[in-house]
Specification:
The chain has 253 residues and is of the alpha/beta class. Helix content is 30%, strand content 25%. The N terminus is likely disordered.
């Protein structure tokens, strides 16, 4: 009976990667590998740069808080979805927002735009928003390490819903769509174009978007998408809609 393939631990290192190079791991990654996973010198792992490149690696040495790895040959990472999905997510509380970002990353979203909608409970000043953005990027990074992606989704700084809509332009091509999740939306997933290259998905926060916010989105080229008869929580709605898009027109077929 053949042995089971061992799944390598994957670590994001935002540095140029080259065969044979020795790199000092960032503090977060070093701490996780040594103190949580208990890896030691000689253990194998994989390192990726977040821009699509990944290498085999060997943990070379541990000296206090410094952990060095030696890179081996490039390795094939999980392919990116042919469907470019942008998630425009109404900012919600703590774990709900983390869940939405984590699952969007695992499901292959290319770009995430957090927006403050009228019913967003969370309010952040400039410094709080910066710290929150770094936290969300950490959530996305951990999701990439787990799911096999070597390319991090683009995660934009939080902005106001109306500011985002003011810059939105109707899709220039029939293969690009803008969708706003709405319980009373007039479109179902089966109505999507047969050829779909890009989708912009707008999801409200807790309590959803207001009637005025939905109307503004429709006026900016979004169409209302209905996901069945049940009203989903914001974090569930995002994951469910992305999964449907990937199953119908992406790489989950």
């Amino acid at each position: 009976m053949p042995g089971r393939r061992v799944r390598l631990t994957r670590v994001h290192v935002p540095l140029p990667l080259a065969d044979g190079a020795t790199l000092a791991l960032p503090e977060r990654a070093a701490t996780h590998l040594v103190r949580v996973l208990r890896l030691r010198a000689g253990d194998r792992l994989a390192v990726f740069d977040g821009a699509g490149r990944e290498h085999d690696a060997t943990l070379a040495q541990v000296r206090g808080d410094r952990v060095d790895v030696v890179l081996g040959a490039p390795r094939a990472a999980a392919a990116e979805s042919p469907l470019a999905i942008t998630l425009v997510q109404g900012i919600s509380r703590g774990e709900r927002m983390d869940y939405a970002i984590q699952k969007a990353t695992e499901l292959g979203v290319r770009r995430i735009v957090p927006v403050f909608a009228e019913r967003s409970v969370v309010r952040l000043d400039a410094s709080q928003a910066e710290r929150k953005l770094e936290h969300w990027r950490g959530v996305a990074t951990s999701a990439c390490e787990q799911c096999g992606r070597a390319r991090l989704p683009e995660l934009l700084p939080p902005r106001r819903y109306l500011e985002y809509l003011a810059e939105a332009r109707p899709p220039a091509e029939a293969s690009h769509v803008r969708l706003v999740l709405a319980p009373e939306g007039t479109h179902a997933a089966r109505d999507l174009p047969e050829r779909l290259d890009a989708a912009e998905l707008l999801v409200g926060p807790e309590g959803g978007l207001t009637t005025e916010e939905e109307s503004l989105a429709l006026a900016r080229g979004f169409v209302g998408l209905r996901l069945g008869p049940r009203i989903l929580r914001t974090e569930t709605a995002a994951a469910a809609a992305i999964a449907v898009l990937q199953a119908l027109r992406g790489d989950l077929a």
